Automatic annotation (TrEMBL):
PANTHER family named in the record: PROTEIN U-RELATED
Domain Spore coat protein U/FanG: 23-158
Organism domain of life: Bacteria
Region forming the signal peptide: 1-19
Key words, A-Z: Capsid protein, Signal, Virion
Protein name: Spore coat protein U domain-containing protein
Amino acid sequence: MCLRLGLACGLALPLPLPAATSQSFQVNATITPGCLIVGGGSNYGALSYGSYSALATSTVTAALTGGVTLQCTPGVALSMSVDGGLYNSAGRNLQLNSGSARVAYQLFRDAAFSQSLGVNQSVSVTYSDANTISLPIYGRVVLPGNQPGGTYSDTLQVQLSW
């Protein structure tokens, strides 16, 4: 029997290996491009033409106000389409809330009212600041001067895609 300092003979002690003091590892993340709807809840805003005499025959315009602001990853191609509304017969119409009288109106995608926004037409939404994008929706109505007095309204659905 071989004993040396309380150890059995023939067993080799592990020798300490040099420790690696420098090593690398990978770090990565995937950023998915997209958009975020900020504020407004389920209401994208209002297009309000105001209040006029039932005999008025003027052309009235309005811009979409209030509602939501969009934030998109820079460079995302954002587009929107707007349906024909609840009273779409040969175009968009406002309907008297307490009756069936209607007044036709049109939507545009520019403040100059030169680019029509057709029913379910997909159009690009351009932006310069990816953090504050507003929907470019403008409306025009020609008051006919022969409709019953009251409040006329319509509800439109906006579809966003990116």
